[in-house]
Amino acid sequence: MREDKDIRVLIGDDHRIVREGLKQVLGDLANGPPEMVVAGEAQTGAEVLDRVAALGGPEGLDVVLLDIALPGRDGLDVLQALRKQWPALPVLMLSTYPEKQYAVRCIKLGAAGYLHKSADPDDMVGAVRKVAAGGRYVSPATAEALAAAVGSAAGQGADALSHREHQVFRLLTAGQTVSEIGARLGLAPNTVSTYRARILEKTGTKNDVELALYAERHAKGASAG
User: Fold this and answer.
1) What's the pTM value of the predicted model, to 2 decimals?
2) Segments of the chain with pLDDT less than 70
3) Chain CA centroid to CA 210, Å
4) Cα 200-184-170 angle, rounded to 5 deg
5) Facing residues of 91 across strands?
6) N or C: which end of the chain has fewer CB within 10 A?
């Protein structure tokens, strides 16, 4: 953390109501020094990177609160870019997805922690303080997900997908076409089709309908865990 008294935070989320809620939580519950200051906001992945650069990376920020489901360049891509360009800047991931679906993937990509958006406000403040001080925030649910991942290191199904395959998987199961996915991720349609074929093979599904049903079962299983 920087040596002055404030913890300076950048919030990357495409929903204004979420950003306002986070600002209120950090402002109202951060009792006692160091105070928390929202130094910047961003609605897209590209904006997050621009804002961080404008603020000087870790010279002007202590923590980035980053949503996974950002429009354009998604949060996982942005996380990788931040870790590459500013490895000393902690990134705390935010999501509505269950920990078992994304927490392990985020930690492996270098996130300092993973928070569900429904987390208790006190836990959120504690998580920001911890990662700003150089620590890692691991909730009980994330710890359970990490332990499960260690127990099945080889991975299977959706857990065995690479980062790019997982991006395509998420967009396919959201109903996007190969062309739409290619445009969003900057990939040729043939490349997307190749990723799709690998995803079907790894998940044991035969078409997009079966893949969508698989994704629904996977999400329910993660929530039930």
Assistant:
1) 0.75
2) 1-4, 29-32, 149-156, 219-225
3) 26
4) 35
5) 64
6) C
Q: Is 120 exposed, middle or buried (0-12, 13-18, 19+ CB in 10 A)?
A: exposed
What tokens does 123 get?
A: 């836990």
Q: Six-digit token pair at 115? A: 């928070």
Q: Give residue-wise pLDDT tens across range 110-124.
A: 999 999 888 999 999
Check: CB of residue 98 under 8 Å from CB of residue 158: no
